[in-house]
Amino acid sequence: MNKVVLVTGANSGIGLALCERLLAQDPQVQLCLACRNMQRAEAARSALLLSHGDARIALLRLDVGSVRSVLKVAEEVKLRYNRLDYLYLNAGIMPNPQVDFKALFKGLFSRNVIHMFATAEGLLTQQDRVNADGLQEVFATNLFGHFLLVRELEPVLCQPGHTARLIWTSSSNARRSAFSLDDIQHRKGAEPYSSSKYASDLLSLALNRRYNSQGLFSSVICPGLVMTNLTYGILPSFFWTLIMPIMWLIRVFTNTFTLTPYNGAEALSWLFLQRPESLDPWAKYHSLTSGLGNNYSQPRKMDIDEATSEALYEQLLELESEVRKKMREEDEEVHPPGH
Ligand SMILES: NC(=O)C1=CN([C@@H]2O[C@H](COP(=O)(O)OP(=O)(O)OC[C@H]3O[C@@H](n4cnc5c(N)ncnc54)[C@H](OP(=O)(O)O)[C@@H]3O)[C@@H](O)[C@H]2O)C=CC1
Ligand SMILES: CC(C)CCC[C@@H](C)[C@H]1CC[C@H]2C3=C(CC[C@]12C)[C@@]1(C)CCC(=O)C[C@@H]1CC3
Questions:
Q1: Does residue 87 fall inside a structural domain?
Q2: In ligand 1, which atom is closest to the CA atom of 227?
Q3: pLDDT (tens digit, 9 = 90+) per residue, 171-226?
Q4: How far apart, in whole angstroms, are the C-alpha atoms of residue 15 and residue 158?
Q5: Domain limits at 185?
Q6: I need a labelling partner for 311 at 20 to 30 A (CA). Which of 70, 186, 240, 262 fits?
Q7: Residues having CB within 6 Å of any atom of ligand 2
Q8: Residue (of 58, 76, 74) closest to 10 by Cα position
Q9: Three-state SS for 257?
Q10: Which residues are CB-neighbours of 183 under 8 A, at least 6 positions away?
């Protein structure tokens, strides 16, 4: 049976490289690219068709940071497909990033230099904003929209006699200290990206606990440091051009500098081939590239615990019902009952 795979944020970077790799692995796969910009989605489909002329590639308009868009797209998916085999939760943003150059310079001469380059710990902050749904944008895009999508797609993901998979693109920048159960949207801090990625690690564990018995399995990956629109947005482009030779040099010493989207998609495409029962729900699967340029995946235990993951899940359910109530009220204002 042809596998049906939906990828969010599939029009560029790691998501697009993943689609390319999936088609190379299994030309029969039915791909569904869920993107917010249809022009970029069309361009991605054309690029994929250049190398895989017979590929079955559908496009969906999805702004994962908007509750209405998620609800609408989920209805469309349920109409188009009776079953979804893989849902890659990959779309992500890091708005207005700022590098702490003082910390970077200090780190260069410390024993933690490799760790600093692998995780960006202490190097990066972002400026977040509140979106039209009244949610913090980074939280809404990187986590909550995807959570809602999973919840809405339950009927096509949890089919009797079938297994289905959720695969989250997390990050080595996910950090416990950036996340708080008292502020899951990270309204107060300056590391919303770290917080949202840590929350995705927690959520994956909670989803496994709830859904494994229904044949739905969730995994988390880290692509390493990959040069994409997201990373190019961190520093001015002339700076990247200047330091690129240094980046390739660092790559010889650390396997987390995967650098190309193809390399970064290693763990995502590796997971596509694994039996879900053989995977560890506590592990993050890392895409790694050796000094000689060989790609491989490696599981590393995540710094998460069951109580926090369960508490986050409960808060997400609460937020979901608040958001749904708000949508109903807004709809009633536009179309009052009885009219
Ligand atoms: N690059 C890296 O080093 C690392 C990246 N990651 C994660 O990898 C994932 C992919 O990012 P990457 O490939 O690097 O960067 P890109 O910016 O190339 O890709 C991000 C994708 O997400 C899409 N997207 C963003 N916001 C939304 C939205 N609201 N609705 C729908 N789609 C959206 C983008 O669409 P559009 O083109 O319209 O902006 C784009 O297709 C992200 O989750 C990121 O956090 C994790 C660790 C390291
Ligand atoms: C080569 C150096 C002299 C200068 C590069 C410094 C930083 C810009 C980078 C060092 C570690 C990087 C990193 C990321 C972005 C760029 C760095 C901060 C990420 C945060 C990108 C998105 C992620 O999800 C994880 C990455 C970790 C490492």
A1: yes
A2: 1
A3: 999 999 999 999 999 999 999 999 999 999 999 999 999 999 999 999 999 999 99
A4: 24
A5: 4-334
A6: 70
A7: 99, 104, 117, 119-120, 123-124, 171-173, 225, 231, 234-235, 243, 246-247, 250
A8: 58
A9: coil
A10: 189
pTM, full prediction:
0.98
We report the CATH number of the domain holding residue 174 as 3.40.50.720
Opening angle at CA 309, ends 228 and 312, nearest 5: 85
Classify residue 339: in a domain, yes or no: no
Most ligand 2 atoms within 8 A of CB, residue of 225, 241, 256, 284 to mutate: 225
Q: Is 168 helix (H, G, I), strand (E, B) or coil?
A: strand
Whole-angstrom Cα distance, residue 138 to residue 173? 14
Place of tokens 């560029």: 12
Structure tokens at 129: 């904003």
Residue bearing tokens 């959720």:
166
Q: Which of 88, 193, 262, 285 is catalytic?
A: 193
Which residue ranges of the chain lie beneath pLDDT 70? 339
Domain count along the chain: 1
Residue recorded with tokens 């330091």: 243
| Rounded Cα–Cα distance for residues 264 and 14 (Å) | 6
Evaluate whether residue 320 is within a structural domain: yes
Q: Is residue 255 part of a domain?
A: yes
- Give the Cα separation of 206 and 122 in Å (integer): 28
Write out pLDDT tens, residues 79-122: 999 999 999 999 999 999 999 999 999 999 999 999 999 999 99
Which residue(s) pair with 164 in the sheet? 216
